[in-house]
Amino acid sequence: DHLTRVIHRLLQLLSWPGPLPARDLAAFYAQCEGDIPLHLDRVVYEPSNMARPYLADMMRVGLSPIQAGVRGQFVATMAAGRFVSFDGPHDYLEGASSITVPFLVVSGRADHLCPPERTVTFFDRLGSTDKTWRTFGLDQGDHADYGHVDLCNGDHAADDVYPFLAQWLHERIAGR
Predict the structure, then answer these.
(1) pLDDT tens, 68-93?
(2) pLDDT category of residue 160 using cuts at 50, 70 and 90
(3) pLDDT, average across residues 142-158
(4) Could you give the angle at the alpha carbon of 93 between the alpha carbons of 9 and 133, nearest 5°?
């Protein structure tokens, strides 16, 4: 989609060898008024499920510098159109069939960084016989359409996401 192409181009532009000062960018973001150009902030969260000041506070506290290798990983993955290692030889999608432990894949209906349609292929290839795929959104009866970060920190994560995760884990622990 359009946001993915914009992010890919930005990551290419941010290709210097040093770390990207994520906390400085978060502080800048917190001071911005109105919409961010191209709605780039929407890549990581859904505004209807997470107040912007809360996101800015979380970013200031929770973000670490983004190393060049991590940025390179994103560029390589976006260029390849699949989840590959930075140096190219490892295709993580191909390795999914070797995963045989219980596995839960979650996604947010409004996630632009890793939308649900990008998670289903990985889910389908998992080798586990005990696997669950869940997208959080209004169409599933949740309080909101979830973005990437609001799956953990959204206004309604404690109502929608956490109970689901707890139940999934409980069923597997109790079944031992």
Answers:
(1) 787 778 777 777 777 777 776 788 88
(2) very high
(3) 92
(4) 100
Binning pLDDT at 50, 70 and 90, where does residue 155 land? very high
First to last CA, the chain: 43
- For 41-70, b/e burial (b = at least 16 CB within 10 A) is bbbbbbbbbbeeeebbebbbeeeeebebee
Contact 172, 130 (CB under 8 A): yes
DSSP string, 110-172: T-SSS-HHHHHHHHHH---SSEEEEEESGGGT-SS---STHHHHSTTHHHHHHHHHHHHHHHH
pLDDT band at 66 (very low <50, low <70, confident <90, very high): confident
φ and ψ at 16, to 5 degrees? -65, 160
User: How many residues comprise the chain?
Assistant: 176
Among residues 70, 130, 81, 84, the alpha carbon closest in space to that of 105 is found at: 130
Burial 72-84, CB ≥16 within 10 A → b, else e: bbbbbbbeeeebb
